[in-house]
Amino acid sequence: MVLGAGFLMQDKGSLIDEYKIIFENAPLGFIIFDAEGVITDCNDVFVEIMGSSREKILGLRLLELPDRRIVSAVRTALDGGLGLFEGEYCSVTSGKRVPLRALYKTTEPQNGMPIGIGIIEDISGRVATEKALRASEEKFRKIFENSNDGMMLCDSQGRVTDWNRANEAMTGVSKQDALGKYLWDLQFAFAPKEHRTPEVYEKMRSSLLFAIKTGSAPFLNRPIEGVLVPPTGRLVYIENVGFTIPTDDGFLFGGRVTNITERKNAEVRIKALLEEKSLLLREVHHRIKNNMATVAGLLNLQAGTLQDPVAVSALKDAAHRVQSMMILYEKLYTVETVGALSLQIYLPALVDEIIRNFSSPFPVEIEKQVEDVALDPKVLQSLGIIINEIITNIMKYAFIGRNGGKIILRAYREQERVYIEVADNGVGMDESITFEKTPGFGLMLIKILTEQLRGSIRIDRNGGTKIGIAFPATDA
Known about the structure:
Elements: H1 14-25, E1 29-33, E2 39-42, H2 44-50, H3 54-57, H4 68-78, E3 83-90, E4 97-107, E5 115-122, H5 124-146, E6 150-154, E7 160-163, H6 165-171, H7 175-178, H8 183-190, H9 198-214, E8 224-228, E9 236-247, E10 250-259, H10 261-304, H11 309-332, E11 341-342, H12 343-356, E12 364-370, E13 374-375, H13 377-398, E14 405-414, E15 417-424, H14 441-452, E16 456-460, E17 465-472
Parallel strand pairs: 12-14
Antiparallel strand pairs: 1-2, 1-5, 3-4, 4-5, 6-7, 6-10, 8-9, 9-10, 11-13, 14-15, 15-17, 16-17
Helix pairs in contact: 8-9, 10-11, 11-12, 11-13, 12-13, 13-14
């Protein structure tokens, strides 16, 4: 751009025309000044930058400006050098403040008088960008330094370039000692003693270098739990997240390390409390089961002392209902999971026990198709009594006059409902008997308990009897 002043050395011709085209249409401000530093010409861009008018600018003496930095740059140009200025300038003709970058140079035309040219650029956009970058950097720095998590950055060679205070506190290594060290050397030093082997070191080094070289690795951008042993020897549980930062020269590596020692200790305490609670619940279930066994035994003993068959049957039915609950609590204190029990564990055992209680003179085949559906013990208690009533009725009435029979039990879940089906190939239930109109207590009990489960019940009398129950799984 300085060569532009040389165009003025031509008296006439194309070079002057080219100069004027540049002078008038360039996106930069141009001024021409004489040997005394007086502005003799300027373009429209310079007028706009100054926020003034051409009339006020022409004749302005640059060497008398109050901004001594401009004066120094112009004087350097008049002395044959290259005058440079960059900074905020306050226009003396308008009072406008604007960040500028200016270059001043003089040349010796044919008449022997030096002519100076100034090229002025409004750098407001760049300054605003730099200010925003500084503000962003300051925010990042505050977040980085004041984070409760350990934060670190490495260059493209894996050397530590930043290390915050939380990292210092967690590892016992100061920022001054960490800077410039390879990250894998620090990681290896923090590893438990049993992990400090050449193989582990090489794996740390190669994994980090691969991540920095490619910007990808299986361990990046996901939390990984581990332990570190700082110089104090105190074991620290950590959650570490590694990430890469793309740059023009490759990738940088960063890491966030969270101290989860308190959380781990709390998990151990909670696990111990849950195990204690589980043990207590199993003991409670065991005692309930024993108490129910006592009640069932008493009911059977009482039945043995009576002669009235109706009374004997009623007591035995009551004992069977208690026994269905007794089996539930027996399963509850023997399974690992506390608070729920699978139908697959409970129902087959319950049905087998009910069948055993009947001294049938003929064989009864039992087919069980029970899925692994976990239900709450409260639901299972009602369901157990329902199944007891259905199987008991089948064993009492379904196979009268037959030499054998078959019972099919199905239990499954579809979407948000649980379905229980009990079918037999017996003589079938009389059409006059329904759950709404029943002479017996058993069917009435089935209806009441199904309603408590907010369920529905149906009877299919084709080829025997099939009773189906459905209730919301969300209550389970």
